[in-house]
Amino acid sequence: MERSLSSQASDWREGRRFRAFELSQLGWKQKDVAAALGVTKGAVSQWLKWVRQGGIEALRRRKAPGAPLKLTSQQRSHLPQLLAQGAQAFGFRGDLWTQPRVAELVRRQFGVSYHPSQIGRILRACGWSRQKPVHRASQRDEAAIQRWREEEWPRIKKKP
Question: Of 108, 76, 81, nearest to 92 (Cα)?
Fold first, then answer.
């Protein structure tokens, strides 16, 4: 027994397009197909046009094209090596990488401009996660903190 196209769909939208094609092949009118699937007649008309122009594969889901990448794959793979050198190696005060700093590094090294808000996406693609510095007082006394945890905290804690 042959499986229907709509049962082979990768998502519900694709399945709906396949089902519209199947119903039209069975002789259904476009307005009836649209009503049965809860779409407009224009949508059904467009899907059937796609089939006429590109075959049944034209109904398959496609990834949205988006803008072309500004950095080449080679440049993207080189970025973690640059970041590993530290921010100070590139003239920044302190060794903390921020999105604006990384955007500036990318502009200097590769001649490509990105808005700092987009740098996080590029860093995630490179395997870098967003890091926040730990803020601690310079007067912090680790020994005193440890003593308090071991001696004072058990004493004032309500239940052992």
Answer: 108
Q: Measure the CA–CA gap between 93 and 9, rounded to whole angstroms.
A: 54
Q: Are residues 17 and 41 located together in one domain of the fold?
A: yes
Task: Give percent of the chain above pLDDT 90.
Answer: 48
Instruction: Tell the burial category of 21 from Cβ atoms under 10 Å away from its Cβ (0-12, 13-18, 19+).
Output: buried
State residue 1's pLDDT score: 42
* Residue 108: pLDDT band with limits 50, 70, 90: very high
Give the three-state DSSP class for 71: coil
Residue 39: CATH number of its domain: 1.10.10
In a domain, 55, yes or no: yes
Q: Which domain holds residue 25?
A: 5-59
Residue 78 burial (10 A CB sphere; 0-12, 13-18, 19+):
middle
Indicate the pLDDT class of residue 131, thresholds 50, 70 and 90: low
Report how many domains make up the chain: 2
The token pair at 28 is 């259904």
- Classify residue 33 by burial, with Cβ atoms within 10 Å: 0-12, 13-18, 19+: buried
**Would residue 132 count as lying in a domain?**
no
